[in-house]
Amino acid sequence: MTHRRSDVALTALAPITWGTTYLVTAELLPADRPLWSGAVRALPAGLLLLALTRRRPHGVWWGRAALLGALNIGAFFPLLFVAAYRLPGGTAAVLGAVQPLLVVALTVALLRDRPGRPALLAAVAAPAGVGLVVLRPDAGLDPLGLAAGLAGTAAMAAGLVLTRRWGRPSGVGTLTVTSWQLVAGGLLILPVAAAVEGAPPAPDGPALLGYAWLGLVGTALAYALWFRGAARLPATRVSVLGALSPLTAATLGWLVLGEALGPAQLAGFAVAVAAMVLGQLPGRAGGGRRHRQPASNRRQSSVATPSGRAPGGSSAAAANGSVKRCAAAGPAACDRSSSQRTSSADQPRPGRAAISRTRRRPTRVSSS
Hints:
Layout: H1 2-18, H2 21-28, H3 34-53, H4 61-74, H5 76-86, H6 89-97, H7 99-111, H8 117-134, H9 143-166, H10 174-197, H11 205-232, H12 235-240, H13 244-255, H14 263-279, H15 295-302, H16 313-329, H17 336-340
Helix pairs in contact: 1-11, 1-13, 2-11, 3-10, 3-11, 4-9, 4-10, 5-9, 6-8, 6-9, 7-8, 7-9, 8-14, 9-11, 10-11
């Protein structure tokens, strides 16, 4: 339990750090170069981690690292910037908060796992709470912005579920896998930024400070913590923590920029925080699959001991049943000579362990 709480706390630091992106971008970075900001944010951080870890992908992980980098970085960053430029910040934040719902659907489709009731309730309540915090009456609904926001959210949701499904190669740490994805994603953004925005901007002092924060803390550290949590925790529990990003942005806007937080925003904070707490509670999925008994245990429970008795309590149960049958059928039914007339097909062959009759029925395993 202590390890799980520490995993949740460390994972939560990632969206909290991402929540500073809005303030840093608005105050320090060039306003007209979002794609270059994404490339500068991802690629140097990935190259730095790659230089520190000195491990390259091998085998199937070349393709997996490229796909995860495209989903989590290469597609997510540009789509996020398109949504942010074409939609009010509140609308874009709510689209990002829908990620837990998409993760629930992908968890069922890809992992064949049904999330429990707490996870389902949290997936619905989190975007509702975020909506109360960030949405305003004049929020626009630009179709292209909505499509980009939903596509970016779906890309990162798929990346999160696939990260949970594939884990990482044996003997390879989280920083190494993070470096692969950042490099792959940054290399995908680079030509798009050059084609759309032209030459990279010449950064000034504040921009260098902003890029350093977003690259080292908001990307290298934050994504390492996020991927670590994705490998250790259920995807539904990780995704609901993403609501901390817009909540952090709203809090910084109130503290630094003097933005107002009324009763509706405070109520939304309470709903979103409660959803995140609810999402971390363990819950059994209704009708979900049962865990298969390990093969070694199944063999041990079905194979009799050398004395011909099933191990453990099975022999006692069989003996008790035999006594009851004898008492009901009379002494002749339990005569030793009658047991010797049993067909040889029912007798164990020499050199093979006898199969216990009490374990003849196979263990039922749910097909779901």
